Amino acid sequence: MACKVLVVEDEIFVAIEIEHVVEELGYKPVGIAADSETALKLAAEAEVALVDLNLRDGATGPEIGRALAEKHGITVLFMTANPSQLGEGIPGTLGVLSKPCADDELKQAIEYATACHRKAQAQPPKRLQLFSCNQNYGAQAVMQA
Prior knowledge:
The chain is an alpha/beta fold. 37% of the residues lie in helices and 19% in strands.
C-alpha cells in the first residue's frame, strides 16, 4: 500500500509541484493544506506530512507539525526557506529541508520520511537537517544528524 502524504504549503504552485513529486514516487497525496484548519482536517488521512512554516494563517507551521506528530502519529518533515525559525527542532518531528531544493533532494527527503514512518533504514539527503531532539525515528536518524 502506498504511503499517504499531506502537503502543507500555501504557495499553490510550490504545493502542486511537491504533490507531483509525491505521485511520481508512487505515494498517494491526500491533499494540499494552505492553513492549520485544513491541515488538521486532512490529518486523519495522512502518514507523512511535508510542512512549510509560514502559511496562509501566519507562522503556524511549527504548531501544525507538532500537532500532526503528537496527536496523529504522522511523520513530519518541515520544508522552509527559513530553517533557523525551528531552532533546535520540534520534538516528535523528523527534521527540515531548506527551500528551494532540487527535485532530486525533494525525492530523497520524501523517500527518507516515508522510510522513517515505516521504521526502515534509510540515508537522509545531505541538506536535510535532522532534529537531535527527536528520538522517535531510531538510531539511524540520530546517528546521521
